[in-house]
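Question: Hello, beginner here. Any chance you could explain the protein record under this note? Any guidance would be welcome.
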Amino acid sequence: MFSSFSITNLDKTEDHSTLLLKMNYKSLGLKGFGGNLIIRNLETNEVFKSVSKIGFSPFIIIEDLPIGEYEVLELKIISGGPIISIRDKNLFNTIKLESPKNYYLGNYLTTKIKPIFKLNIAVSRKEKDSERTIVKQLRKKSEEWLDLKIDYENILFKVDRTEIEIR
């Protein structure tokens, strides 16, 4: 009797990556941390979303992403009040994962802007986090991602300050 078997590579980091970004909300005495990111692989149409305790950390992380190009389908921001949901694909860059790395998409601050009686917000890119801070967040998810280089080249939004009217 013959048996056949194959050895499966259990090391996700061989051809997979992580995405992470930092999102804070501060406005009119309200504070919010983090949110949720949903992206789609442009080649396979597979959808990936962040899995985190929304509101407990400003970091949004998606693990175990295959190499490829991705579009943002939705970004949810914890605002200290209602969750702000942004689905306008024209606001976001295409995210290009070219090799196994930890892709840092930026540090963002969301604030309410005038007119006060409408839900208008500005999302502004801030100074990038230190490598030490990023490694600390990755360690909370899994030790396996710590050996990968941190890539700072991709950014989430097309411009450094994006003003959005929420309807």
Summary: The first strand starts at residue 16 and ends at 27.
